[in-house]
Amino acid sequence: PQPLADGTHTFAVRAVNTAGVAGDPISFALWVDTTPPSITAYAPTPGALLNTAAPATTATVGDSHSGVDQTTIQLLLNGAQMPVTFDPASQTLVMYSAGAYREGPNNLELRVRDAVGNAAAPLLWSVTVDTVPPVGTLAIHGGAAITTSLYVTLGFSATDDTSGVVAMRLSNEMFGGYVQEPYATLRELWALH
To answer: What is the per-residue pLDDT across 146-164, written as a single tens digit (0 to 9) for each?
Structure first.
């Protein structure tokens, strides 16, 4: 009358003939698994901004009853199925993504089933890859060719197609001594030396 809980249930059966004589009992186990696998952790983090085109892409996938069916694991990156390995002992899934991520937004989808066909709800998330540095221009005193002033006004124009520009690094030397400041289109009183 009640649904059976997930797990193993043992039943005993004894046949009785019309004369009322019972035979030896036999027992059998019935295994019930109605719970889909669980995805307890995954990387990269949803919404992450990544500065590499080959981030570590992993997931922890487990099923406490029948186990994960490795042949059903699908990890899609921008709609294309990617090669993965799954270690049942550690319940770790690893995707080999070298060169598979594209610049800008990337969509991931993870699908997994257990050994009896229970499917976890697809896990969907997205990350953004930005490996291209910003580009920009610099003008001293509004584009003046020369100056006699030790302190100058710097004008900036910078763009980044993927993640925008939030900071700038200024220096009078090509290879060091940089000062990082929030991005602004003007910087007054910059000391030349």
So the answer is: 989 999 999 999 999 999 9
